[in-house]
Model the fold of this input.
Amino acid sequence: MERLDRDFFTLDVLEVARRLPGMEIVLRQGAEFKRYMITETEAYNGSEDKACHASRGKTSRNEIMFHAGGYLYLYFIYGMYWMLNIVTGAEGDPQAVLIRGAGEISGPGRVTRCLGIDRTFNREDIVTSERIWIETNGYSPELITGPRVGIDYAGEPWVSMPWRFMIKK
DNA sequence: AACACGATTTCG
DNA sequence: GAAATCGTGTTT
Done:
């Protein structure tokens, strides 16, 4: 297994979102290592994308999305869930990939809860972090694509863009 | 200072 | 179908 570097995460968000399924999130908890294969992602594609948090400009919450790829963006929603995102693309282009499924876990809120990922992971650099990173073994599973979930407010064309990627079972 | 709401999940 | 539950952005 090979740890992913800065070059990978600075690729375009659509490229990263469709390549992450099949790769593994590695979490280090003391001497323990836990691995979860990413099964589902969604791409949030910069300032033009009305479903992207950064579409209405930079705020203290989304500022990390404007960095170069490889940083984590954690945000809290519905009063109880943390959403795990990986920032992608070049500096100044606010893109991120939402991790919607890992291992046997389905649903972004359940992923963070099960993996123990919370606000302390916000802005973590997964290229250099000692506690979380991504590895690949070259496996590239067949994918199913579809529109993103829960973003009806974004309107067309964004609500219809096929930017959800999941491993075909 | 107050208010509205969300990249969800769970229960009835 | 609707509640749970609160940080964040926006309005007052």
About this structure: The two ends of chain A are 23 Å apart (CA to CA).
